[in-house]
Amino acid sequence: MKSQTDISIYFHVHLVSDSTGETLVAVMKASTAQFVHATALEHLHALVRTPAQMERTLEQIEARPGIVLYTLVNDENRHRLEQRCAELNMQAVSILDPTLATLGRYLGEAMSSEVGAQRHLDEQYYDRIKALDFAMAHDDGQNVAGLKDADVILLGVSRTSKTPTCIYLANRGIKAGNIPLVPGATLPKDVISFKKPLIVGLVARPERIAEIREQRLASLNETKASAYANEISVRDEMLKSKRLFAKHRWPTVDVSRRSIEETAARIINIYQEHKR
To answer: Which of 71, 98, 119 marks a domain boundary?
Structure first.
């Protein structure tokens, strides 16, 4: 018999936005993560800008009752959503209202009421595109000489999440490249002489890396025993990488229990301290 703590609660969450809905998705994931026995069934209704689009959205909400989170600038659409949710006895929450109200009072200024105002093609947008191009061109040890212009260089053995972390950093406008530490190969000498980039070493528990590598080999239908996924070999790789990082006094981040976002956040903090 299942205990109360083993029971999962499934519920519908409707995310209604007149823009891309990314803000809603981020808030929903951060919030539902705090409820370990609840699983949200996400329904994203993005770019809802006309009355006809709103009516189609309301039909889908009515068909799958649950919680409604929204970011709507248009007063007519907003009123229609709130009215219908009240009729259906469903909770509807405007997630930005408290923040916008506080900012308005503090700044003494009215908000612009412009849909997707945060997504102008400004200089920061183009910086992110350039950073993404840079990450792709300098992934996995490519174009080492070009890494002299990087903001951040990530070093680590295979499966320490170097590439996805670089992509995430690029989305924050940080030019990042990475170099894998391969058994029997030495780190390119140019890297040590670079003055601009912050070099960060990624480390992890050997047993965790061995497990990930085994899964990787399985996905490739590779069944032969290999030093690549052997925990003793991985432990030796990790030890040598840590010695390298300590020798050059490069900061390290343990990715064992961190998500990509958490790893990137830690690197960004180190990078900001480095710039200061």
So the answer is: 119
